[in-house]
Design goal:
The protein is built from 3 helices and 6 strands; from the N terminus they run E-E-E-H-E-E-H-H-E. A hairpin with a 5-residue loop joins strand 2 and strand 3. It is α+β, with helices and mostly antiparallel strands. It has 2 domains: 58 residues; 54 residues. Helix 2 packs antiparallel against helix 3. The strands form 2 sheets. The protein has a 4-stranded antiparallel β-sheet. A two-stranded parallel ribbon has the order 5-6.
Length: 133
């Protein structure tokens, strides 16, 4: 079996790239423009990369984020502050709240904060949008 690689083809190169020979693996569009090609034979991939600047070999499918990393960081900090505030309010309001509110409310806010913090990490395969604040 021949060696295969994954390619990321930018949107401006896609119309020029001839993929009619049937040797291409699976294709999938990528948010933010471009096409992800999985399982392209090495010889064909080298030919495409030589003829089309911008086509690059990658290890895994890229993940595109809708906002910049800073937006995710600020939102994460906000959710974690809300988590602490929710615990404080539940502790000092003088009313007996049910256990599900004590556990579910702060836990959901903390989980949202942790998810947003994870999304702010600039991994190699992650592309952040440049246009939104």
């Amino acid at each position: 079996m021949s060696e295969r690689v994954n390619l990321l083809v930018p949107a401006e190169v896609v119309p020029r790239l001839s993929m009619t020979d049937g040797a291409v693996g699976t294709t999938a569009p990528v948010r933010g423009g471009g096409v992800y090609l999985r399982g392209v034979p090495v010889s064909l991939a080298e030919e495409w990369m030589a003829q089309n600047p911008g086509v690059q070999a990658i290890k895994r499918r890229p993940a595109a984020r809708r906002f910049r990393a800073r937006v995710y960081t600020y939102a994460s900090v906000g959710f974690l502050i809300l988590t602490v505030q929710a615990v404080i309010v539940l502790a000092v309001d003088g009313v007996d709240e049910p256990l599900w509110l004590w556990v579910g409310g702060p836990l959901a806010l903390a989980a949202a904060g942790a998810t947003l913090a994870y999304k702010s990490i600039p991994f190699e395969h992650v592309r952040f949008s440049a246009g939104r604040a």
